[in-house]
Amino acid sequence: MNKRIITTCCPLSREEKRQLRQEAAREALLARMPEEFKLLKSEFDALCEDYLKTKQELKILKENHVRLWEAYNALQQQLIGSEQRDVRRLSPVIGAGFKHTFAVCMTGTVLLAGKEYNKLFSDADWRNLRAFEVSKISSVFLLRADGTLLTAGGNGYGQCNVSHWSNISAIAVGYMHTVGLCTNGTVRAAGKNDKKQCEVSGWRNVTQIAAGSRFTVALCRDGVVLSTGENNYGQCNVQKWRHIAGISAGLGHTVGLCSDGTVLAIGANSDGRCNVEKWQKIVAVSAGARHTVGLRTDGTVVAVGDNSSGQCNVYGWSDVIAVVAGEKHTVAVCRDGSVCAAGDNSAGQCNVSEWKLF
User: Fold this and answer.
1) How far is CA 15 from each of CA 8, 19, 115, 222, rounded to the nearest angstrom?
2) CA 313 to CA 310: how far, in whole Å?
3) Residue 195: how many CA atoms within 13 Å on its side-chain side?
């Protein structure tokens, strides 16, 4: 009534008319809202119920997925681990380096092919041998079963100053430095330290060591990898690696064997030596100077990288239980104790066809 009187006595402005129309629209909307709101609320409640049900189902699916994955991963690691143990049980000691190949038969006899480093030591020195390493500048190292080291050859950087070392379980030789793994899990190093490749005194709980040209890598008991030294190609960028079961180092690249049988590699890769991302079911890896070799669970061998000397021509090999990469050659031990090799043979380092290791 009042509005009509106001409208009759005093005409409304355009703005007032607009406000009246808005108020009328709101009143009409409020009059219709209850039923529509009930319908919307019912639909919303139904959606919430479906959401909670779906969320619960997803949670159950996720839990089942996690349990299945954990079971699968444990089974796979058990399989890889058993095969790795089988390889270690059957395999004799074998090594390959700069123009030489070395092996210890099950009888304890030492076999050498390539450069005649055996002339640097007496016959007695070769008894009860655990490892034989040679650097590119012809520094020669014998690791004996009692954990002591014998050395010969060049010592221009002090790399051979290791005669006082004891309780050594493994050695690794870089270009101008030497690394030793002690039985208590600590690490020692000697030689040139211009890139901090010998700064390993703080390392603990180490199970494996490897040495590149001017860098050092170690595998700890918890599957973590440590590194120090030259990193011009990123070869020391291994801090994020986890669940590693084995390591190896070339001149400028680092290779890690994962516990699930896959392989990681980092560093110089102009020749493809780090192209291992598709490898699976691997039980052993070895890095040569510029190539990488892997042993599969089925006894076959894969290789990538520099093949200028035929060191990667391994795809016909079978029944292999151990494989090792030298500078430009690759050597493998077969299940019957025979040995095969491919690659550079300029010093006779591949003349192993007549070897019988067990």
Assistant:
1) 17, 6, 105, 78
2) 5
3) 19
